[in-house]
Design a protein that fits this description.
The protein has two domains: about 1-70 and about 225-395, Alkaline Phosphatase, subunit A (3-Layer(aba) Sandwich); about 85-220, no CATH class. The protein is built from 15 helices and 13 strands. It has helices at about 25, 30-35, 55-65, 70, 75-85, 125-135, 185-195, 200-205, 230-235, 245-255, 270-285, 295-305, 305-330, 375-380, 390-395; strands at about 1-10, 40-45, 90-100, 115, 140-150, 150-155, 215-220, 240, 255-260, 290-295, 335-340, 360-365, 385. The strands form two sheets. It has an eight-stranded mixed beta sheet with strand order 9-8-10-1-11-12-2-13, sandwiched between helices. Strands 3, 4, 5, 6 and 7 form a five-stranded antiparallel beta sheet that branches. The radius of gyration is 21 Å and the shape is globular. The termini are close together.
Length: about 400
């Protein structure tokens, strides 16, 4: 038996008036998911434990079958694993986003955060900006590391797990009330604007009509994680196929193999076909039992507040990943199961994550269902299948 998870990050949503009360998942043209759903188990799963923040970190831990209440130590330490940054027990890892704040004459505290991803800045541009930050701020206590696109990392020696606000939670808001209480972190952020706003990279971006990447933003602080091996836990040899360091870090922490796909960049135009092929090659040629395909685009489109682009990302997922993976596995003669789901909702209305249960679709080639539910939030809510502890869905999937 082969197992594949296709995860559309933030794909779930709420009914939207301009879609006649449908969600983007309902409104999207998804003929492959529609066909598979008739043969599948449809249900809901609560991936975010009560009292925990609805991040992709906690949610993807749960999807992988790890109880976040036991295993979660922060988002950034997982990304440190991906980047290959060694952490001591007393180190604190912090996500260091490059964001867009309003380019005006107001004091830094009165500026507004307008884009958490700086227009999905390229990694090549971000390398130059983080280099400028390193030259100004790095010392024996604070170290800065380049990640992918707008997502980067700071290691704080002998630091504290301070409370920090995710930038995507405060889009359009004045930032003063959300700056760190720690003096050094707050001053780094304020001074970063002075360094980055007129940096040659940002002058060039501005001339092209692109958002400036003109401030760093700290969030997601945590300590070194201790995760059990996925293979020891579930007796399946697995691969992770993702563009983002968070998921790659989860793979490193759980002993799964990361497959890097050329052109996979976490944007709407990521290399979907390359991810699909990497999955089928891993399962059918390279002896792996389990593949986890993570697609960031629906989440990014939710944060951008774009209904049209979120629908497009879901249609791409259907046509360019689910379709070829399902076809190749079906042709192979191998028995297989496919689990399609988001990690959390990222509703257009709020442009950030929520803790609502997510819809899932579980197909088993050896146990074809004959249902009438479509794969969407509304129909999943009609099902009797509900995992109050979402992390138990993986055990059910791999039973």
């Amino acid at each position: 038996m082969k197992y594949v998870v296709v995860l559309g990050d933030g794909m779930a949503d709420e009914p939207i008036d301009e879609l006649d009360g449908k969600t983007p998942l309902e409104a999207a043209d998804t003929p492959v998911m529609d066909k598979i759903s008739e043969m599948s188990e449809i249900g809901l799963a609560a991936m975010i434990p009560k009292g925990m923040k609805p991040g992709s970190d906690t949610a993807n831990l749960a999807v992988l079958g790890y109880n976040p209440e036991i295993y979660y130590t922060g988002r950034s330490p997982l990304e440190a694993l991906s980047i290959g940054v060694p952490m001591e027990d007393t180190d604190i890892a912090i996500r260091c986003n490059i964001v867009t704040v309003s380019d005006d004459e107001l004091p830094y505290e009165k500026k507004t955060i307008t884009d958490h991803s700086s227009g999905e800045i390229s990694t090549k541009e971000a390398v130059e900006l983080i280099k400028a930050i390193k030259e100004e701020f790095e010392d024996d206590i604070y170290k800065f590391y380049t990640g992918v696109s707008y997502r980067h990392l700071t290691i704080w020696k002998n630091g504290n797990t301070v409370e920090l606000t995710p930038p995507h939670d405060i889009l359009g808001r004045v930032i003063g009330d959300y700056l760190p209480e720690d003096d050094n972190l707050r001053n780094f952020m304020k001074r970063s604007y002075e360094i980055l706003n007129n940096h040659p990279v940002n002058i060039a971006r501005s001339n092209k009509g692109l958002n400036k990447a003109n401030s760093i933003w700290f969030w997601g602080a945590g300590t070194r994680p201790e995760l059990d091996s996925f293979e020891d836990k579930y007796h399946k040899k697995g691969v992770m196929i993702s563009a983002v360091d968070l998921l790659k870090g989860l793979a490193v922490g759980t002993g799964m193999t990361n497959i890097n796909v050329e052109g996979a960049d976490g944007t709407l135009e990521t290399n979907y076909e390359g991810k699909a092929k990497a999955c089928t090659d891993a399962l059918l040629k390279d002896g792996f039992d389990f593949a986890y395909i993570h697609v960031e685009a629906p989440d990014e489109m939710g944060h951008q507040g774009s209904v049209e682009r979120k629908i497009k990302s879901i249609q791409y997922l259907d046509k360019r990943i689910i379709a070829p993976v399902f076809e190749e596995l079906s042709k192979s003669g191998e028995d297989f199961r496919m689990l399609v789901l988001p990690d959390h909702p990222t509703p257009i209305r709020v442009r950030t994550h929520t803790s609502d249960p997510i819809p899932y679709m579980l197909y088993d080639s050896t146990d074809i269902k004959h249902g009438k539910l479509r794969y969407c939030e509304k129909d999943a809510g009609k099902s009797d299948n509900y995992f109050k502890e979402g992390y138990r869905l993986m055990e059910h999937f791999l039973k």
